[in-house]
Amino acid sequence: MTSAYRAARILTMNPGCPEIVDGCILVDGGRIVAVVPWKDASGPCRDLGDVTLVPGLINAHAHLELSHMSGMLPAGRGFEVWADGLFAALRDQRVCRGDVERAVAAARNSGTCFVADVVGREAAMVRSVLEAEGMGGHLFRELSGRRGLPDFSAADRPGPWSPSVHALYSTAPALAREAKGWCVSRGLPFSLHLAEVPGENELFLGRGGEFAEFLRARRILPKGFAPPGMSAVAYASELGLLDGRTLAVHCVHVDEADIGILVRSGAGICLCPRSNERIGVGEASAAALHATGATLCLGTDSLASNDDLDLWAELRAVRALLPTDIPLWDLLAMVTIHPAKVLGLAGEYGSLEAGKRAVWAVLPPDFTEHP
Ligand SMILES: [Zn+2]
Predict the structure, then answer these.
(1) Which residue from 292, 323, 80, 86 is spatially nearest to 196, judged by alpha carbons?
(2) What is the pLDDT of residue 1?
(3) 324: CA distance to ligand 1 center in Å?
(4) Where are the domains of the chain?
């Protein structure tokens, strides 16, 4: 049976009809049948009132299994201090299901319908919470070091997932290539943290530095590491890791040449501005990336480096780094159509149009061009 929902304004993120004033969404079996002006609809309908509907939001980068670390780690003192705090917390404490449940429920209440989540040992629990809370999710099983790909068995990992690598300073290049190849051969998305830390480029260029010393002292650099003599982004490209199905997360320390590489590759560039600020790694080049037409996505990162998993707060943070006249479409694209495309979800999520899942976020009447 078809249900109808009326709202004062619908921002569809469908380029064919981006905005409908006094619109109506017809739904059958959890799928959208049509999005039409109210005057063209007929039959009984639920009037949602003076609100704006947008597609359910997609968080392109989180680590739900760090949800117990809210407010626990040192802030604003740089990556090395933060990471040492993280290692200690990982040693001493384990996340509870309740922490993940609360994080997912709060994300859902703020309009998020799908999370691309990086997981380690808690993959099964995270999946189970996502399912119980009715949240869509793609799990990136994170690899580091130099051991080959684990023997992934589909049976013990229900739901969509694929391998990802932590970062090129912690993962052997052969393993990174193998993981990306695995994803490519199965048509699955891939993810890595890239150019997040000041000092990453110096390390890869063979200039040493504080970050290189930090990694050596903690035995994080993969055995046999040899600087490739190029920037982090150029190295990722050289290894064949960047294409339209890769989420390159952070991309804070990029120059013009790096931005060119990222844009030409078509990779989704996932900015996490509040995490960058909290840890103290610098400001993402959001304006330069946007100006060159990069496929920008947005992630909250984890509660170990953010106050919450609210994508509206993340949008406000990224907006502060972008030109004031940025179109609303471009902002919403970062949390809807762009991540949907990179994650391979374009047939399901990202816009309000016929055939897609009937999931939307409801915005209050005072919502303007400034989310
Ligand atoms: Zn992360």
Answers:
(1) 80
(2) 84
(3) 28
(4) 3-54+357-363, 57-343
